[in-house]
Design goal:
With about 525 residues, the chain is of the alpha/beta class. It contains 15 helices and twelve strands.
Length: about 525
């Protein structure tokens, strides 16, 4: 083929490909003309009011398991005599660990310096128990503007291992469920297919999952990017945050000497292959979902340079921890939480190509022996370093409403809802077979936290009973939510209709709801607390 003929043909097929990608995104698998996830016209009364709706979500996943009893669900009267709950490792006592520093050294090094170990109760759980904020939430306790928009959700499931619990927490579905998809997948698809919601086809992703670099044990965390029954174009962009990241270099495609000619060639030969299939009477095969996935991948590759400004090299420059900025023995380490917070804030605050969802998978400033926040041993040592440091990194990228801060590079809680999630909690008793210095997995009673967006008042939904340390059912299953309901809350907060064959069903909402209207109203009014 002569060069002029080739270029003319590829310019035509390039336009055809772009139109094809848009068509696949706009009307995938029989979606209605309003776009996938659009709120049905006959159910508009159940949608969150526009002035309360979040525009974006930052989710922090405390990978390994966040202990509720020394953070968001501290009850000082529980376990004082039995050394359980927040008193598991009483000040100055580390059973089986005689070399652990005493209370004053440990707590003062973490920035307490005379501060109380817990904030007085401001809210009650469903049983009327006053909830305090525990010792490792000092950065949040210093931000009343954030606490005033915090809603604690008691949660429960039955997956004891990380490998099962992580997929459940990311997706709301148990492993093996074909529809299992990360909540970021639904968000990516919704905004890609709904220009009227401020979205539409673009090269920049709407959803990102930020993985920590340097020896991260995934524990099935890649399920955060699972697509289930959604098209491949809905997959969030996974980004490994690492000081040695090659992502910026790879996006520049330095090994391709003439990018335009290369992209034209790929588009041309793909179109030629499809034409041959049609000639053989296999037109239906060319409309298969995998064709759409390939077209979107081709589209993304041709527009990879667009991501260079969004994921620029400066966002991957190392942040180190100078002595004594963090308590414990992690001095001069790479500050992964602050690196992830910096990138998340940049993606969510951009004036153009703004992200709608960012998940920051957190493993702390100094991962435990078992990885991340998985403290089977030396719980106090690692919790005292990791929890406050991560929450301090979070507070640094949220504008302080009490001080009228309006930094355009930071997160505004009126626009962005923050979710603090985890695959499960930690036991209210010591893990005996680990030298009695750590805690075990505890999916039967833990918490997730929602801050900002639709949340305007401080509150709590559900309760954990003292004797078993478990969330138990009250009337009509009202004392906790499931991971599926957690995911439903995120989708509804963004105005995304959550009931479809690719997402959730009415039966995923507890409390005896009869149909989609009642289910949506329960998530909006009871769980998100909009009727409060």
């Amino acid at each position: 083929m002569r060069r002029r003929t080739f270029l003319r043909a590829t310019s035509i097929t390039g336009a055809t490909a772009a139109a094809g990608v848009f068509g696949i995104l706009k009307y995938p698998r029989g979606a209605n003309a309003a776009g996938w996830g659009a709120w049905p016209a006959d159910k508009q009364d159940t949608i969150i009011p526009a002035d309360r709706m979040a525009q974006s979500v930052l989710e922090i996943h405390m990978n390994g398991g966040l202990n509720a009893f020394d953070t968001f669900y501290t009850v000082p009267t529980w376990g004082a005599e039995t050394q359980t709950y927040v008193h598991q490792f009483a000040p100055g006592i580390q059973v089986g660990n005689p070399v652990e520093p005493n209370r004053d050294e440990r707590f003062d090094a973490c920035g307490f310096d005379g501060e109380e170990l817990w904030e007085p109760a401001q809210i009650n759980d469903a049983n009327g128990v006053g909830l305090y904020l525990g010792p490792w939430l000092l950065p949040l306790r210093r931000r009343p503007d954030v606490l005033s928009r915090m809603r604690i959700m008691v949660q429960r499931h039955d997956q004891v291992a990380h490998e099962g619990a992580n997929p459940v927490s990311f997706t709301g579905d148990r492993p093996g469920q074909p529809r299992m998809a990360g909540v970021g997948t639904a968000i990516q698809r919704y905004f890609s297919e709904n220009p009227e919601a401020g979205g539409g086809l673009r090269a920049a992703p709407y959803s990102y999952v930020l993985y920590p670099g340097a020896g991260f044990n995934t524990f099935n965390s890649l399920s955060a990017s699972a697509v289930g029954f959604h098209p491949g174009s809905a997959r969030p962009l996974g980004v490994t945050v690492d000081p040695n990241s090659l992502l910026t270099q790879l996006l520049a495609r330095p090994s391709v000497s003439d990018r335009d000619a290369f992209d034209h060639a790929i588009t041309y030969y793909r179109q030629q292959y499809e034409n041959r299939l049609r000639a053989l009477g296999l037109g239906a095969a060319t409309r298969a979902p995998e064709r759409g996935n390939y077209e979107f991948a081709d589209f993304a590759r041709r527009n990879s340079l667009h991501l260079l400004d969004i994921l620029s090299a400066d966002l991957f420059q190392p942040i180190t921890v100078p002595d004594p900025a963090v308590c414990g023995d992690a001095m001069n380490a790479v500050d992964m939480p602050r690196m992830q917070a910096r990138l998340a804030a940049s993606l969510l605050s951009r004036p153009e190509d703004t992200a709608r969802y960012v998940m920051w998978i957190d493993t702390g400033i100094h991962s435990s022996v078992n990885g991340g926040h998985d403290t089977h041993s030396f719980h106090t040592r690692f919790a005292s370093q990791n929890y406050p440091h991560t929450f301090e990194a979070l507070m640094e990228v949220i504008n302080n409403a009490d001080e009228n801060e309006n930094d355009p590079g930071k997160i505004d809680l009126d626009r962005t809802m923050v979710v603090i999630n985890t695959e499960f909690g930690r036991t209210p008793t010591r893990q005996v077979n680990a030298g009695e210095t750590g805690t075990n997995h505890w999916p039967w009673g833990y918490v997730t936290v929602f801050i900002g967006g639709p949340i305007r008042e401080r509150g709590c939904y559900g309760a954990i009973d003292y004797a078993p340390g478990e969330a138990t059912d009250g009337y009509a299953n009202t004392n906790y939510i499931s991971p599926a309901e957690n995911r439903l809350m995120v989708l509804q907060a963004l105005g995304i209709y959550p009931f479809s064959s690719q997402t959730f069903a009415v039966g995923d909402v507890r409390g005896g709801v009869a149909d989609e209207v009642e289910a949506a109203e329960r998530v909006r009014d009871v769980y998100l607390g909009l009727s409060v």
